[in-house]
Amino acid sequence: MRLRHRADWRTLVWMCVLMPTLVAIQYAYPETLPYLSWFSFYFAASSTTVAHNHQHCPTFHGKALNRFFADWISIFYGYPTFVWVPTHNLNHHKLVNKAGDATITWRFTNSHNFFIAVTYPAVSAYYQSEPIGEFIRKAKEGNRDLYWRIIRQYVVVFGTQAAMLGLAIALHGRSEGLFIWAMTLGLPAVFAMWMVMIFNYEQHVHTDPWSVRNHSRNFVGTVFNFLFFNNGLHTAHHEQAGLHWSKLPALHAKLEHEIDPALNQKSVLWYWF
Questions:
Q1: Which of 211, 225, 218 is nearest to 264 (CA)?
Q2: 39 to each of 7, 126, 188, 224, how far by Cα in Å?
Q3: Contact between 197 and 53 (Cβ < 8 Å)
Q4: Whole-prediction pTM value?
Q5: DSSP code, position 257
Q6: CA spacing 20 to 30 A to 210: which of 29, 163, 247, 258?
């Protein structure tokens, strides 16, 4: 089990130690939910960044292990991680918020307010379904190995979620079991998918899609980028999509003088408020 980049030890600690341990503790001791479920929501949100990073720059040297890890991430992410390929790698990075980008922020309006922001994930998800569907159809017609990997990922995600719901009910009864599953896995996964689309929205809304450097908004705070594996350094990521997340700060430092200072926000929370 060889990592391609040493920094991914933290990825493994997050995904393979802390997240499953949190679930196990809350399943065994439901009284800890008020204290630990908040962390479940955070780790689910962080898994979206891990999924994103893994699709751009695989974590391991071995192909089989990378496929297994993608399936594993999907369980906490709440959706098959292969969808990053057609919607993000092959679409968003090609068009970067221009017409045709399935995640475009100005589809119906270029207004930027609370209502537009909170409804954007639902609108974006609807339009992302088209490239996802096309990707699956092409895989079914011309790449059966990829097609069955896609099917397996759907089975792993929803099968595991269903099994964990069943386990919670078996351990604690219907009502309490449903609540435990919802607070440790179900709702965190929904929150994660909502948040990752919000991040995409805020990283591109009211930026210049045709600019070489000002097509993205960066959140450069140290805490945010530690918690989300440098996901805030978005200009650098678009500059070299396959660059490992641990190397983004160095690239951002090289590009920073070319970026409009207004697009380098120190705090994502301050920016939102």
A1: 218
A2: 22, 29, 9, 15
A3: no
A4: 0.94
A5: G
A6: 247
Q: What are phi and psi of 216, to 5 degrees?
A: -140, 150
Can you tell me the distance from the alpha carbon of 14 to that of 67, in angstroms, rounded to the nearest whole number?
Answer: 18
Instruction: Give me the helices (H) in 78-173, please.
Output: 84, 93-95, 114-142, 144-172
Element holding 187 (H helix, E strand): helix 187-204
How far is it, in rounded angstroms, from Cα 44 to Cα 15?
9
Alpha carbons 200 and 49: distance in angstroms, whole number: 11
Largest CA distance in the chain: 58
Q: Are 161 and 185 in contact (CB under 8 A)?
A: yes
CA separation for the pair 172, 269 (Å, rounded) = 37
Query: Residue 256 in contact with residue 187, Cβ under 8 Å?
Result: no
Q: What is the C-alpha separation between 20 and 96, in angstroms, rounded?
A: 35
> Hey, what are 51's tokens?
């999924």
- Termini Cα distance of the chain: 43
pLDDT single digits (tens) 27-41: 999 999 999 999 999
The Cα 33–Cα 142 span in angstroms is: 46
Report whether 70 contacts 82 (CB < 8 A).
yes
Tens digits of residue pLDDT in 166-221: 999 999 999 999 999 999 999 999 999 999 999 999 999 999 999 999 999 999 99
Of 1 and 155, the structure prediction assigns the larger pLDDT to 155
Q: Which of 21, 68, 41, 82 is nearest to 189 (CA)?
A: 41
Location of structure tokens 């569907």: 133
